[in-house]
Write a structure and sequence with these properties.
This protein has 1 helix and 10 strands. It is mainly β and 129 residues long. Strands 1, 2, 4, 5, 7 and 9 form a 6-stranded parallel β-sheet that branches.
Length: 129
């Protein structure tokens, strides 16, 4: 996908054990997260990134990237299963590691259930450490 492109996430639950990396110039656009942000309806036509891992679920790594109309969920199902025992570092990370990152947007994004370091974070590191 070239810079300026859009990845359309259809309705559904997308379970991943790997971080979703959004490079510069790319927009990831879902179909919303249902009618009520506090009572997510996984079967009601929403777009859910269901993360089951130890890092951040989504990382922005470049200029002019976007995430829209999705739920980013620290997945805990099935109860007492593998995902229920894994703690994610967080939901969404804007990471500027030795590079500038600007014009990153999130719109209509529900970040839910992340109990690790935090739901969203911005990290900036100097180029030499």
């Amino acid at each position: 996908l070239e810079a300026g492109g859009t990845v359309i996430l259809p309705k559904g639950i997308f379970l991943t054990k790997s971080t979703l990396i959004i490079p510069g110039g790319i927009k990831v656009k879902g179909q919303g997260y249902g009618s009520s942000p506090l009572a997510i309806q996984f079967d009601a036509g929403s777009s859910v990134i269901a993360y089951c891992g130890t890092e951040y679920a989504v990382k922005f790594q470049g200029h002019a990237s976007a995430l829209e109309d999705v739920a980013v969920y620290d997945w805990r199902y099935p109860a007492n299963g593998y995902c229920d025992s894994v703690e994610a570092a967080g939901g969404v990370l804007v990471e500027a590691d030795g590079i500038g990152v600007e014009s990153v947007t999130m719109s209509n994004v529900l970040i839910y259930w992340f109990l690790g370091e935090g739901a969203a974070a911005l990290t900036v590191r100097a180029q030499n450490g």
